[in-house]
């Protein structure tokens, strides 16, 4: 027999690998009893820090995923523009974005979320509803959005294919997402035509 505390820690660690913490249960584990597992005395001891960390992380990820797939009242989808790039929460892709400079991260996030200086978003900000105010400045056909520049802009087609390849699928289907990577997205947003769409029109700034 070793030290009492070490023996309890070993046994609880083994238990922890076999079952997680039941939802709603307090983060306190009961030490094994002598008659059950050969250890004298019985105490309620705090759960190990690793279990606390794991429980919190799993709870946050569940909340994140549930919120991501939630809908507004009336069945309207939320985060629509971002979901073209993130079908579900993706920590790996998020990390690859965050590994860039502050300016690059800001530009990519603006592009992914659609909260940028492209005409469609600016029309929403300015409460402009005229169709000619939101048409793409390059192809003159569709609403100017980040998604449009990759998906169906004839004027930017070659650049889109060069960085993202031929896109497939139906944007109207649930679960649709664009094929992309952070490095290629960064380079795409640095193209002169795209960069100009992500820069405010100084003539309109008051």
Q: Specify Rg, calculated over alpha carbons.
A: 26 Å
Q: Helix count, per DSSP? A: 11
Q: Total domains, how many?
A: 2
**Overall pLDDT score:** 81
Q: End-to-end span in angstroms?
A: 78 Å
Number of strands: 2
Q: What is the strand content?
A: under 5%
Shape: elongated
pLDDT < 50 stretches: none
Q: Summarize the biggest pleated sheet.
A: 2 strands, antiparallel
Helix content: 40-55%
Overall structural class, as computed from helix and strand content, comes to: mainly alpha
Strand order of the largest sheet: 1-2
**Helix-strand pattern:** HEHEHHHHHHHHH
Describe the structure.
The chain is mainly α and 206 residues long. The chain folds into 2 domains: 65 residues, no CATH class; 125 residues, no CATH class. It is 48% helix and 3% strand. The chain contains 11 helices and 2 strands. It has a two-stranded antiparallel ribbon. The mean pLDDT is 81.
Keywords:
elongated; mainly alpha; 206 residues; two-stranded antiparallel sheet
Concise summary:
By secondary structure, the protein is mainly alpha-helical. It has 11 helices and 2 strands; from the N terminus they run αβαβααααααααα.
Helices and strands in order, then pairings?
Layout: H1 4-18, E1 28-30, H2 34-37, E2 44-46, H3 49-68, H4 80-83, H5 91-98, H6 102-113, H7 119-126, H8 146-151, H9 157-164, H10 182-189, H11 192-197
Antiparallel strand pairs: 1-2
């Amino acid at each position: 027999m070793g030290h009492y505390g070490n023996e309890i820690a070993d046994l609880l660690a083994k238990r922890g690998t076999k079952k997680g913490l039941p939802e709603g249960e307090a983060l306190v584990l009961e030490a094994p009893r002598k008659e059950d597992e050969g250890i004298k005395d019985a105490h309620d001891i705090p759960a190990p820090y690793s279990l606390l960390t794991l429980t919190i992380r799993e709870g946050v990820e569940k909340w994140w995923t549930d919120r991501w797939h939630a809908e507004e009242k009336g069945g309207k989808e939320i985060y629509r523009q971002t979901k073209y790039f993130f079908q579900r929460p993706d920590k790996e892709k998020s990390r690859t974005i965050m590994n860039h400079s502050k300016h690059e991260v800001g530009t990519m996030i603006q592009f992914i979320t659609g909260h940028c200086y492209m005409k469609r978003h600016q029309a929403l900000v300015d409460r402009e509803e005229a169709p000619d105010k939101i048409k793409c400045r390059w192809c003159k056909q569709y609403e100017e959005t980040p998604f449009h520049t990759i998906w169906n802009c004839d004027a930017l087609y070659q650049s889109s294919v060069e960085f993202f390849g031929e896109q497939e699928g139906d944007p109207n289907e649930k679960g649709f997402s664009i094929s992309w990577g952070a490095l290629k997205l960064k380079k795409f947003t640095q193209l002169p035509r795209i960069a100009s769409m992500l820069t405010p029109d100084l003539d309109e700034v008051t």
